Amino acid sequence: MDKIQINGGRQLKGEVLISGAKNAALPLIASSILVDGVSTFENVPRLMDISSIQMLLEDLGALCEFKGHTFTVNASGIDKIEAEYELVRKMRASILVLGPLVARFGRAKVSMPGGCAIGARPVNMHLSGLEALGATISIAGGYIEATAKGGLTGNEIYFDIPTVTGTENLMMAAVLAKGQTKLRNAAREPEIVCLADALNRMGANITGAGTPIIIIEGVSRLHGANCRVIPDRIETGTFMVAAAATMGDVLIRDCIPDHLGGVINKLRATGAIVDAFEDRIHIKGSEIIKNIDIKTLPYPGFPTDMQAQFMALMTIAQGNSVIHESIFENRFIHANELLRMGADIKISGGNIANVRGVSHLQGAPVMASDLRASASLVIAALIAQGTTVISRVYHMDRGYESIEKKFEGLGADIKRISS
């Protein structure tokens, strides 16, 4: 397996371009199942997860073409309603094919999903929502089977807690349901809005995306459309934190600052200078990094996907910081790797990290445990004294396009070691 080697101590300087958002691209590509024809998606990042969903769609019978950053799907030839374990186990987002398959074909059989080891992330709200729309659900042998012989029927669905993939799955299922569906306490992430906009371009009738109540008026069919993936707000945030941590001076282009209000405010509180424009962010790090407290919350709160990166930053901040992870359990695995680099972190109650800033980190061999943990280790390595080698970087390849090349372009001493 590949590794990343970083010699720390260099300030990041220059410009970096942000790729399309993986978490927006995956549901958009899954939505192509709803169309008996061709759908085209632009600004799609070239990532392992995109390759995984391409293989899944092709196994179902769709024709896919990925040229540059344009992904085209012809779903007219889909002749299979089973998403098999070997294809689904690599990526939790594979559950997103469940709703579209049931909506279009009246039946689906999808393996229970796999993915990062950062908590259970159950799919019970996906299933109860499909039942509310009239589907019959059974689980056996590690597979979810959903059947709606007469098609789905609109209904009112309430989420106990906001769920991004649950909102996306049920929104896709409801677009072809008879009548109106109302999703209450829906997730509000920008990726939800991106999916709703794309579905509307395909002929759906969705209002309220980006608010807690989404209303879907069912239509009889969708048609192909050309849709664009929004910039990756988590990649943007990762480069912002890296610039602040290295006392750098970085211009981040092709991003949407409005999607990162919580991250920008917290970075400013650390002493960084952040200037946000329509589609770019200029950030200059401070020589003195102030400690801050963080609690992860559903959007528009502080994103759980930025928690690990901020923990790396707080390891060298002045004073003590408290990081409260309220979204997922088991999402402090990266703390043990930061300890190997000299960080002072104590975990209490499983979801609260007390971080005492130290004068410096020291390079060490470390291991990534999930996608965002890998990003935190890259940031820690950039500020550490000496050399850090990060193993299991396949996690990082799931969500960051050419990250080592982008950091190298900012002056980092970073290289990939291929096994």
From TrEMBL:
UDP-N-acetyl-alpha-D-glucosamine binds at R92, D305, I327. The keyword Cell inner membrane does not apply. It is found in: Cytoplasm. Phosphoenolpyruvate binds at K22, N23. Residues 7-406 form the Enolpyruvate transferase domain. The active site is at C116 (proton donor). Keywords: Cell cycle, Cell division, Cell shape, Cell wall biogenesis/degradation, Cytoplasm, Peptidoglycan synthesis, Pyruvate, Transferase. Transmembrane segments: none annotated. Pfam families: EPSP_synthase. One of its GO terms (molecular function) is UDP-N-acetylglucosamine 1-carboxyvinyltransferase activity. It is an enzyme of class 2 (transferase). Gene3D superfamilies: Enolpyruvate transferase domain (3.65.10.10). GO terms for biological process: cell division; cell wall organization; peptidoglycan biosynthetic process; regulation of cell shape; UDP-N-acetylgalactosamine biosynthetic process. One of its GO terms (cellular component) is cytoplasm. It catalyses: phosphoenolpyruvate + UDP-N-acetyl-alpha-D-glucosamine = UDP-N-acetyl-3-O-(1-carboxyvinyl)-alpha-D-glucosamine + phosphate. Its EC number is 2.5.1.7. InterPro entries: Enolpyruvate_Tfrase_dom, Enolpyruvate_Tfrase_sf, MurA_subfamily, RNA3'P_cycl/enolpyr_Trfase_a/b, UDP_GlcNAc_COvinyl_MurA. Pathway: Cell wall biogenesis; peptidoglycan biosynthesis. The modification 2-(S-cysteinyl)pyruvic acid O-phosphothioketal is found at C116. Belongs to the EPSP synthase family. MurA subfamily. PANTHER family: UDP-N-ACETYLGLUCOSAMINE 1-CARBOXYVINYLTRANSFERASE. NCBIfam families: murA (TIGR01072), PRK09369.1 (NF006873). Cell wall formation. Adds enolpyruvyl to UDP-N-acetylglucosamine. HAMAP family: MurA. This is UDP-N-acetylglucosamine 1-carboxyvinyltransferase. The lineage of its organism: Bacteria, Pseudomonadati, Thermodesulfobacteriota, Desulfobacteria, Desulfobacterales. The gene is murA.
